[in-house]
Each structure stands twice: as C-alpha cells, then as structure tokens.
Amino acid sequence: MEHPLNLLFEDQNIIRKIQRRLPYLFQLAEVESSRAGKTGMEAGSVREKIIIALLIYKFGEENVDTNLPITNPEADVILFNLPISIKTISGNKLSGIKLIWTVDPQKAKEFQQNYYPSCDIILVQINWGHNGGLFHIPLDNQIAIFKELGKENYIKLPKPGTNPRGIELSLNAMNKLINRNGSKYIPIEWKKHEIKINPYKRWVELWKED
Known about the structure:
The chain is built from eight helices and eleven strands. The mean pLDDT is 88.
C-alpha cells in the first residue's frame, strides 16, 4: 500500500503551494514568537502546527489525529493511523536534527540503547536567503540505514562535559536517509516577505468580547 505522504509529494498543485506559502507561514511563526528581535523556542511548536495544518488541508481533518500526548517520544501526528514525526532544522547543513531533547546524560545513553525507528519523518530545512526544502523520510528507509550503520553511528550523543541540547541524528545517517531511494524532497527558496504584525492584537480583540 502506498504511503499517503507520497500523494503530498506528488501533487503538483500542493508542491507549488508549499513552495510559495511555507516560507511566509514560517516567517509569521517567527515574528509572532519573537521578543526584542530574537525568535523564541515556541516558534518550533508553531511550525509543527503549520505542517499539521498542511496535512489537514490535503487529507481532511477526519484523517489527521493530533490528540497525541506532548510527552510522546517521537510521533507528533497520526495520518491515516500512521505515526509521523515533524522536525525542522535551520541552515544549509542537515546536522543537529534532534531525535529527543534531554539534558540528562544517563537518559541519553538509555535512549541510544533502546532506540529503534518507529515512524515516518517530515523534515523542513529552513535556510533564509537560500534554498532548503521539505523532506519525507519513510520509516523503511530509517530502519535500513539504522541497521546498516548501527545505533552508535546512527545516533549522536552529546559530548561529555558539554551542555547537552538533545540527542541528534548523525550527519552521516541524515545524508544517507535523504539520498536513499524512496525519500522525497520538495525544493524551497526561503525568501522573506515584508511583514507588519502585532502579535498582541488578536488577544486584545478577544479581551474586548463580552
């Protein structure tokens, strides 16, 4: 059975809409999540909602389950009963992609020992002023590369003595995943728009209601 995400990456109308709208929507997310010119961590949650909204737009609300606990280790959304993880990365290199966020070295080691790929990945590479893209990395490809490299080379643990920001997918693994047959890619030119927005206006209007 064909994975439903293939339909997203093969629909030319959707591809054009993603290429045109995603940079604008992600820029809105950054503006709304900024204070004193710095983008806050909450931008990541808003980006995730934007991608989930794309799935709802394409496949219908009845086929997209967003009722997952926030503590779920990998899946962010369920599409036609298939779990999907949504990840974003900024810059021109696909390095630093987090599998989980943890500051506990022991938990990091336990995660590496117990980890096994469990869901498809939608990855957004944000690269303002340059090219990036939207990727679909199927679960089958993850399992194949995981077995090929082994968990020690597939997963990058934080260096001892550093301030750990999470457990990452190794750059070698990532390059193999995106270039493997079956992985999908939509190129995106990350142009910024002139946006004037007051992030408090919507909430002020709601306070005005009876």
